[in-house]
Protein backbone atom coordinates (compact mmCIF):
# COMPACT_ATOMS: atom_id res chain seq x y z
CA UNK A 1 0.00 0.00 0.00
CA UNK A 2 1.92 3.07 -1.16
CA UNK A 3 -0.38 5.49 0.62
CA UNK A 4 -3.05 5.47 3.28
CA UNK A 5 -6.55 5.15 1.85
CA UNK A 6 -9.99 4.59 3.33
CA UNK A 7 -9.76 0.91 2.50
CA UNK A 8 -6.41 0.56 4.26
CA UNK A 9 -7.76 2.31 7.35
CA UNK A 10 -10.70 -0.12 7.44
CA UNK A 11 -8.27 -3.02 7.18
CA UNK A 12 -6.15 -1.56 9.96
CA UNK A 13 -9.18 -1.03 12.20
CA UNK A 14 -10.36 -4.60 11.53
CA UNK A 15 -6.95 -6.06 12.36
CA UNK A 16 -6.59 -4.03 15.56
CA UNK A 17 -10.07 -5.06 16.70
CA UNK A 18 -9.21 -8.70 16.09
CA UNK A 19 -5.97 -8.32 18.04
CA UNK A 20 -7.86 -6.88 21.01
CA UNK A 21 -10.30 -9.78 21.00
CA UNK A 22 -7.66 -12.49 20.75
CA UNK A 23 -5.71 -13.72 23.73
CA UNK A 24 -2.02 -12.94 23.41
CA UNK A 25 -1.30 -15.94 25.63
CA UNK A 26 -3.45 -18.62 23.98
CA UNK A 27 -3.51 -17.27 20.40
CA UNK A 28 0.08 -16.11 20.13
CA UNK A 29 0.67 -17.55 16.66
CA UNK A 30 -2.48 -16.00 15.23
CA UNK A 31 -1.61 -12.59 16.71
CA UNK A 32 1.87 -12.90 15.24
CA UNK A 33 0.50 -13.62 11.79
CA UNK A 34 -1.75 -10.58 11.99
CA UNK A 35 1.17 -8.35 12.97
CA UNK A 36 3.34 -9.86 10.23
CA UNK A 37 0.58 -9.17 7.71
CA UNK A 38 0.25 -5.56 8.86
CA UNK A 39 3.99 -5.01 8.58
CA UNK A 40 3.87 -6.35 5.01
CA UNK A 41 0.71 -4.51 3.93
CA UNK A 42 1.57 -1.07 5.29
CA UNK A 43 4.58 1.08 4.54
CA UNK A 44 7.35 1.37 7.10
CA UNK A 45 6.63 5.09 7.50
CA UNK A 46 2.88 4.59 8.01
CA UNK A 47 1.67 7.19 10.52
CA UNK A 48 -1.26 5.22 11.95
CA UNK A 49 1.00 3.45 14.46
CA UNK A 50 2.81 6.62 15.55
CA UNK A 51 1.89 8.52 18.69
CA UNK A 52 2.20 11.93 17.06
CA UNK A 53 0.86 13.93 20.00
CA UNK A 54 2.97 12.09 22.58
CA UNK A 55 0.02 11.04 24.74
CA UNK A 56 0.95 9.01 27.80
CA UNK A 57 -0.76 5.82 28.95
CA UNK A 58 -2.21 7.01 32.25
CA UNK A 59 -4.22 3.81 32.77
CA UNK A 60 -1.19 1.84 33.96
CA UNK A 61 -1.60 2.49 37.68
CA UNK A 62 0.69 0.84 40.23
CA UNK A 63 -1.03 -0.07 43.51
CA UNK A 64 1.02 -0.91 46.61
CA UNK A 65 0.46 -1.62 50.32
CA UNK A 66 -0.35 1.09 52.83
CA UNK A 67 1.67 1.59 56.00
CA UNK A 68 -0.59 -0.56 58.19
CA UNK A 69 -0.27 -3.51 55.82
CA UNK A 70 3.47 -2.94 55.57
CA UNK A 71 3.82 -3.08 59.36
CA UNK A 72 1.80 -6.30 59.54
CA UNK A 73 3.95 -7.92 56.86
CA UNK A 74 7.21 -6.97 58.60
CA UNK A 75 6.37 -8.28 62.07
CA UNK A 76 8.77 -10.66 63.77
CA UNK A 77 8.05 -14.32 64.47
CA UNK A 78 6.62 -13.50 67.91
CA UNK A 79 4.21 -10.94 66.41
CA UNK A 80 6.08 -7.83 67.52
CA UNK A 81 7.76 -4.99 65.64
CA UNK A 82 11.55 -5.04 65.63
CA UNK A 83 12.05 -1.27 65.64
CA UNK A 84 9.20 1.18 64.93
CA UNK A 85 11.60 3.86 63.70
CA UNK A 86 13.33 1.50 61.28
CA UNK A 87 9.98 0.20 60.07
CA UNK A 88 8.73 3.72 59.35
CA UNK A 89 11.94 4.55 57.49
CA UNK A 90 11.75 1.36 55.46
CA UNK A 91 8.14 2.07 54.53
CA UNK A 92 9.11 5.49 53.18
CA UNK A 93 11.65 3.78 50.94
CA UNK A 94 9.06 1.18 49.90
CA UNK A 95 6.53 3.93 49.17
CA UNK A 96 9.03 5.90 47.08
CA UNK A 97 10.10 2.73 45.26
CA UNK A 98 6.63 2.09 43.86
CA UNK A 99 5.12 5.59 43.92
CA UNK A 100 7.81 6.81 41.52
CA UNK A 101 6.14 4.70 38.83
CA UNK A 102 3.63 7.51 38.33
CA UNK A 103 6.37 9.58 36.69
CA UNK A 104 7.08 6.80 34.21
CA UNK A 105 3.39 6.71 33.38
CA UNK A 106 3.23 10.49 32.78
CA UNK A 107 6.65 12.20 32.75
CA UNK A 108 5.23 15.72 32.55
CA UNK A 109 3.94 15.40 36.13
CA UNK A 110 7.49 15.68 37.47
CA UNK A 111 8.14 19.07 35.83
CA UNK A 112 4.78 20.78 36.28
CA UNK A 113 6.07 22.86 39.19
CA UNK A 114 9.05 23.27 41.48
CA UNK A 115 7.26 21.24 44.17
CA UNK A 116 6.69 18.33 41.79
CA UNK A 117 10.32 18.41 40.70
CA UNK A 118 11.51 18.41 44.30
CA UNK A 119 9.26 15.45 45.09
CA UNK A 120 10.57 13.55 42.08
CA UNK A 121 14.24 14.11 42.89
CA UNK A 122 13.66 13.17 46.54
CA UNK A 123 12.00 9.88 45.64
CA UNK A 124 14.57 9.10 42.96
CA UNK A 125 17.44 9.75 45.36
CA UNK A 126 15.80 7.50 47.97
CA UNK A 127 15.51 4.65 45.47
CA UNK A 128 19.09 5.05 44.26
CA UNK A 129 20.30 5.10 47.87
CA UNK A 130 18.39 1.87 48.48
CA UNK A 131 20.10 0.26 45.49
CA UNK A 132 23.50 1.44 46.73
CA UNK A 133 22.93 0.06 50.22
CA UNK A 134 21.68 -3.33 48.93
CA UNK A 135 24.56 -4.63 46.89
CA UNK A 136 24.38 -7.95 45.12
CA UNK A 137 25.40 -11.12 46.87
CA UNK A 138 28.61 -12.36 45.16
CA UNK A 139 27.19 -15.87 44.88
CA UNK A 140 23.97 -14.68 43.29
CA UNK A 141 25.87 -12.28 41.07
CA UNK A 142 28.09 -15.06 39.74
CA UNK A 143 25.03 -17.17 39.01
CA UNK A 144 23.36 -14.32 37.15
CA UNK A 145 26.50 -13.60 35.12
CA UNK A 146 26.68 -17.25 34.08
CA UNK A 147 23.01 -17.19 33.15
CA UNK A 148 23.40 -14.04 31.04
CA UNK A 149 26.51 -15.43 29.34
CA UNK A 150 24.72 -18.63 28.39
CA UNK A 151 22.79 -17.96 25.20
CA UNK A 152 20.95 -21.27 25.51
CA UNK A 153 19.59 -20.53 28.97
CA UNK A 154 15.78 -20.80 29.09
CA UNK A 155 15.66 -17.87 31.53
CA UNK A 156 16.63 -15.49 28.74
CA UNK A 157 13.26 -16.07 27.07
CA UNK A 158 11.47 -14.78 30.18
CA UNK A 159 10.93 -11.10 30.75
CA UNK A 160 8.74 -9.80 33.55
CA UNK A 161 7.00 -6.58 32.57
CA UNK A 162 4.97 -6.21 35.77
CA UNK A 163 6.16 -7.02 39.27
CA UNK A 164 4.30 -7.78 42.48
CA UNK A 165 4.18 -4.85 44.90
CA UNK A 166 3.60 -6.94 48.02
CA UNK A 167 5.70 -5.52 50.83
CA UNK A 168 6.78 -9.03 51.88
CA UNK A 169 8.89 -9.20 48.70
CA UNK A 170 10.42 -5.73 48.97
CA UNK A 171 13.74 -6.72 50.55
CA UNK A 172 14.25 -9.46 47.99
CA UNK A 173 13.32 -7.17 45.11
CA UNK A 174 15.95 -4.63 46.12
CA UNK A 175 18.59 -7.29 45.35
CA UNK A 176 16.91 -8.67 42.24
CA UNK A 177 19.25 -7.90 39.29
CA UNK A 178 16.53 -8.05 36.64
CA UNK A 179 14.16 -5.74 38.50
CA UNK A 180 17.00 -3.33 39.20
CA UNK A 181 17.91 -3.23 35.52
CA UNK A 182 14.28 -2.48 34.62
CA UNK A 183 14.03 0.33 37.17
CA UNK A 184 17.36 1.90 36.26
CA UNK A 185 16.53 1.72 32.55
CA UNK A 186 13.28 3.55 33.23
CA UNK A 187 15.17 6.18 35.22
CA UNK A 188 17.64 6.71 32.41
CA UNK A 189 14.93 7.04 29.76
CA UNK A 190 13.08 9.51 31.96
CA UNK A 191 16.18 11.61 32.60
CA UNK A 192 16.98 11.67 28.89
CA UNK A 193 13.49 13.05 28.33
CA UNK A 194 14.16 15.82 30.87
CA UNK A 195 17.28 16.86 28.94
CA UNK A 196 15.10 18.28 26.15
CA UNK A 197 11.97 19.16 28.16
CA UNK A 198 11.24 22.52 29.74
CA UNK A 199 12.24 22.21 33.38
CA UNK A 200 10.92 24.33 36.27
CA UNK A 201 13.11 27.25 37.41
CA UNK A 202 14.39 25.33 40.44
CA UNK A 203 15.78 22.52 38.25
CA UNK A 204 19.16 22.71 36.56
CA UNK A 205 20.83 20.76 33.79
CA UNK A 206 23.65 19.90 36.18
CA UNK A 207 21.17 18.23 38.51
CA UNK A 208 19.80 16.12 35.66
CA UNK A 209 23.27 15.15 34.43
CA UNK A 210 24.38 14.17 37.95
CA UNK A 211 21.36 11.92 38.38
CA UNK A 212 21.97 10.39 34.95
CA UNK A 213 25.60 9.68 35.82
CA UNK A 214 24.57 7.97 39.05
CA UNK A 215 21.98 5.83 37.27
CA UNK A 216 24.55 4.90 34.64
CA UNK A 217 27.05 3.94 37.35
CA UNK A 218 24.52 1.58 38.96
CA UNK A 219 23.63 0.08 35.58
CA UNK A 220 27.25 -0.81 34.94
CA UNK A 221 27.26 -2.91 38.13
CA UNK A 222 24.45 -5.19 36.93
CA UNK A 223 25.07 -8.66 35.43
CA UNK A 224 23.78 -7.61 32.00
CA UNK A 225 26.71 -5.22 31.64
CA UNK A 226 28.70 -8.23 30.49
CA UNK A 227 26.48 -8.17 27.40
CA UNK A 228 26.99 -4.44 26.85
CA UNK A 229 23.71 -3.23 28.34
CA UNK A 230 24.65 0.44 28.67
CA UNK A 231 26.07 0.63 25.15
CA UNK A 232 22.89 -0.88 23.79
CA UNK A 233 20.73 1.58 25.74
CA UNK A 234 22.76 4.52 24.48
CA UNK A 235 22.25 3.39 20.92
CA UNK A 236 18.52 2.87 21.45
CA UNK A 237 18.07 6.32 23.01
CA UNK A 238 20.02 7.93 20.17
CA UNK A 239 17.70 6.25 17.68
CA UNK A 240 14.77 7.46 19.77
CA UNK A 241 16.02 11.02 19.30
CA UNK A 242 16.04 10.50 15.53
CA UNK A 243 12.55 9.01 15.80
CA UNK A 244 11.32 12.15 17.57
CA UNK A 245 12.87 14.39 14.92
CA UNK A 246 11.18 12.32 12.22
CA UNK A 247 7.79 12.82 13.85
CA UNK A 248 8.43 16.55 14.16
CA UNK A 249 9.19 16.57 10.42
CA UNK A 250 5.65 15.27 9.67
CA UNK A 251 6.71 11.65 9.22
CA UNK A 252 8.20 11.89 5.75
CA UNK A 253 8.65 8.56 3.91
CA UNK A 254 12.11 7.09 4.27
CA UNK A 255 11.80 3.73 2.50
CA UNK A 256 14.46 2.83 -0.03
CA UNK A 257 13.18 0.90 -3.02
CA UNK A 258 15.41 -1.11 -5.39
CA UNK A 259 16.48 0.62 -8.56
CA UNK A 260 15.45 -0.64 -11.97
CA UNK A 261 17.71 -3.39 -13.31
CA UNK A 262 20.39 -2.26 -15.72
CA UNK A 263 19.71 -3.44 -19.28
CA UNK A 264 23.35 -3.12 -20.33
CA UNK A 265 25.25 -6.39 -20.77
CA UNK A 266 27.35 -7.45 -17.80
CA UNK A 267 31.04 -6.66 -17.86
CA UNK A 268 33.40 -9.45 -18.77
CA UNK A 269 35.72 -10.36 -15.93
CA UNK A 270 39.32 -11.01 -16.71
CA UNK A 271 39.60 -13.93 -14.34
CA UNK A 272 37.74 -15.81 -11.66
CA UNK A 273 39.67 -14.08 -8.88
CA UNK A 274 37.93 -10.78 -9.58
CA UNK A 275 34.54 -12.53 -9.59
CA UNK A 276 35.29 -14.19 -6.26
CA UNK A 277 36.03 -10.87 -4.57
CA UNK A 278 32.61 -9.45 -5.44
CA UNK A 279 29.78 -9.73 -2.88
CA UNK A 280 26.97 -12.19 -3.61
CA UNK A 281 23.99 -10.86 -5.52
CA UNK A 282 21.43 -12.02 -2.97
CA UNK A 283 21.66 -12.36 0.76
CA UNK A 284 21.08 -15.95 1.85
CA UNK A 285 17.92 -16.54 3.81
CA UNK A 286 18.52 -17.24 7.49
CA UNK A 287 16.20 -19.85 8.94
CA UNK A 288 14.09 -18.59 11.83
CA UNK A 289 11.96 -21.20 13.63
CA UNK A 290 9.56 -18.55 14.92
CA UNK A 291 8.89 -17.06 11.48
CA UNK A 292 8.56 -20.55 10.00
CA UNK A 293 5.93 -21.37 12.62
CA UNK A 294 4.01 -18.20 11.75
CA UNK A 295 4.00 -19.01 8.04
CA UNK A 296 3.50 -22.77 8.13
CA UNK A 297 0.71 -22.83 10.72
CA UNK A 298 -2.46 -24.16 9.13
CA UNK A 299 -5.14 -21.49 8.73
CA UNK A 300 -7.96 -23.89 9.57
CA UNK A 301 -6.28 -24.91 12.80
CA UNK A 302 -5.91 -21.26 13.81
CA UNK A 303 -9.60 -20.62 13.21
CA UNK A 304 -10.60 -23.77 15.06
CA UNK A 305 -8.57 -22.66 18.08
CA UNK A 306 -10.41 -19.36 18.41
CA UNK A 307 -13.78 -21.03 17.84
CA UNK A 308 -13.30 -23.93 20.23
CA UNK A 309 -14.42 -24.23 23.85
CA UNK A 310 -11.09 -22.85 25.09
CA UNK A 311 -11.97 -19.53 23.48
CA UNK A 312 -15.16 -19.29 25.55
CA UNK A 313 -14.77 -16.61 28.21
CA UNK A 314 -18.39 -15.95 29.19
CA UNK A 315 -19.38 -17.59 32.48
CA UNK A 316 -23.02 -18.77 32.65
CA UNK A 317 -25.15 -16.95 35.19
CA UNK A 318 -25.98 -20.30 36.80
CA UNK A 319 -22.36 -20.60 37.96
CA UNK A 320 -22.54 -17.20 39.66
CA UNK A 321 -25.86 -18.14 41.29
CA UNK A 322 -24.25 -21.36 42.52
CA UNK A 323 -21.51 -19.32 44.23
CA UNK A 324 -24.13 -17.36 46.15
CA UNK A 325 -25.97 -20.56 47.07
CA UNK A 326 -22.82 -22.26 48.35
CA UNK A 327 -21.93 -19.21 50.42
CA UNK A 328 -25.36 -19.20 52.09
CA UNK A 329 -25.32 -22.91 52.87
CA UNK A 330 -24.77 -23.23 56.67
CA UNK A 331 -23.00 -26.56 56.17
CA UNK A 332 -20.17 -24.85 54.28
CA UNK A 333 -19.50 -22.48 57.18
CA UNK A 334 -18.46 -19.55 54.97
CA UNK A 335 -18.30 -16.27 56.86
CA UNK A 336 -20.34 -13.36 55.53
CA UNK A 337 -17.28 -11.25 54.74
CA UNK A 338 -16.19 -13.90 52.21
CA UNK A 339 -19.55 -14.09 50.45
CA UNK A 340 -19.62 -13.12 46.77
CA UNK A 341 -21.89 -10.23 47.77
CA UNK A 342 -18.74 -8.32 48.80
CA UNK A 343 -17.04 -8.79 45.41
CA UNK A 344 -18.01 -5.93 43.11
CA UNK A 345 -16.97 -7.77 39.97
CA UNK A 346 -18.97 -10.91 40.83
CA UNK A 347 -22.04 -8.79 41.61
CA UNK A 348 -21.68 -6.83 38.39
CA UNK A 349 -21.28 -9.92 36.21
CA UNK A 350 -24.16 -11.68 37.98
CA UNK A 351 -26.49 -8.76 37.31
CA UNK A 352 -25.35 -8.55 33.72
CA UNK A 353 -26.00 -12.26 33.20
CA UNK A 354 -29.46 -11.96 34.77
CA UNK A 355 -30.31 -9.16 32.33
CA UNK A 356 -30.18 -11.74 29.52
CA UNK A 357 -31.84 -14.81 30.99
CA UNK A 358 -33.56 -13.81 34.25
CA UNK A 359 -35.00 -10.40 33.54
CA UNK A 360 -38.05 -11.09 35.75
CA UNK A 361 -35.86 -10.93 38.85
CA UNK A 362 -34.27 -7.59 38.05
CA UNK A 363 -36.81 -5.76 40.23
CA UNK A 364 -34.96 -7.18 43.24
CA UNK A 365 -31.74 -5.50 42.16
CA UNK A 366 -32.60 -2.36 44.12
CA UNK A 367 -32.14 -4.41 47.30
CA UNK A 368 -28.76 -5.72 46.19
CA UNK A 369 -27.40 -8.57 44.13
CA UNK A 370 -27.75 -10.95 47.07
CA UNK A 371 -31.49 -10.30 47.31
CA UNK A 372 -31.88 -10.86 43.57
CA UNK A 373 -30.02 -14.17 43.72
CA UNK A 374 -32.04 -15.26 46.77
CA UNK A 375 -35.21 -14.64 44.78
CA UNK A 376 -33.85 -16.84 41.98
CA UNK A 377 -33.00 -19.58 44.47
CA UNK A 378 -36.46 -19.39 46.06
CA UNK A 379 -38.09 -19.98 42.68
CA UNK A 380 -35.72 -22.86 41.92
CA UNK A 381 -36.68 -24.47 45.25
CA UNK A 382 -40.41 -23.99 44.62
CA UNK A 383 -40.97 -21.06 46.99
CA UNK A 384 -43.09 -17.99 46.21
CA UNK A 385 -41.30 -14.67 45.93
CA UNK A 386 -43.10 -11.43 46.71
CA UNK A 387 -42.65 -8.68 44.12
CA UNK A 388 -40.42 -5.77 45.09
CA UNK A 389 -41.76 -2.30 45.60
CA UNK A 390 -40.96 0.32 43.02
CA UNK A 391 -37.84 2.24 43.97
CA UNK A 392 -38.08 5.90 44.74
CA UNK A 393 -36.43 8.45 42.48
CA UNK A 394 -33.70 9.15 45.04
CA UNK A 395 -32.89 5.49 45.72
CA UNK A 396 -29.34 4.48 44.96
CA UNK A 397 -28.23 0.85 44.48
CA UNK A 398 -25.87 -0.50 47.12
CA UNK A 399 -22.21 0.32 46.70
CA UNK A 400 -21.33 -3.33 46.23
CA UNK A 401 -23.46 -3.57 43.07
CA UNK A 402 -21.95 -0.63 41.23
CA UNK A 403 -19.70 -1.65 38.33
CA UNK A 404 -16.06 -0.95 39.16
CA UNK A 405 -14.68 2.04 37.31
CA UNK A 406 -11.60 0.27 35.98
CA UNK A 407 -12.98 -3.28 35.62
CA UNK A 408 -16.46 -2.73 34.18
CA UNK A 409 -15.07 -3.15 30.67
CA UNK A 410 -13.94 -6.65 31.57
CA UNK A 411 -17.45 -7.57 32.53
CA UNK A 412 -18.85 -6.22 29.28
CA UNK A 413 -16.49 -8.42 27.29
CA UNK A 414 -17.36 -11.61 29.12
Automatic annotation (TrEMBL):
Q: Which residues cross the membrane?
A: none
The organism's superkingdom is given as Eukaryota
Q: Which GO terms describe its biological process?
A: mRNA export from nucleus
Xref: InterPro entries = THO_THOC1 (IPR021861)
Q: What cellular component terms from Gene Ontology apply here? A: THO complex part of transcription export complex
Q: Name one Pfam family in it.
A: efThoc1
Spell out the residue ranges making up region: Disordered: 255-285, 385-414
Can you name this protein?
Uncharacterized protein
Give the organism the record lists: Aphanomyces astaci
Amino acid sequence: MPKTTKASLCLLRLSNTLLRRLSKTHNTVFCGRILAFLSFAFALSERSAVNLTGRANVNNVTVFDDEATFVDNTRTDDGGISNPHDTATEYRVYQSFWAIQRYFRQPSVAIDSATDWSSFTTELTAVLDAFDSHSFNPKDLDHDVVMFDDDNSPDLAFFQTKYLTNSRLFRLQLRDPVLRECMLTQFWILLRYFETAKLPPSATETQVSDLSARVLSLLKKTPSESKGLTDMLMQVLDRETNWTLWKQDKCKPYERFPTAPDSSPPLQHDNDATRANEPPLKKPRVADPLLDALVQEDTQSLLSKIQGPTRKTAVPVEEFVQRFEEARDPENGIEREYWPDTDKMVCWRTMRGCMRTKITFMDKMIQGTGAMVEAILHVQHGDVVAPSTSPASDDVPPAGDNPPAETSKVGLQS
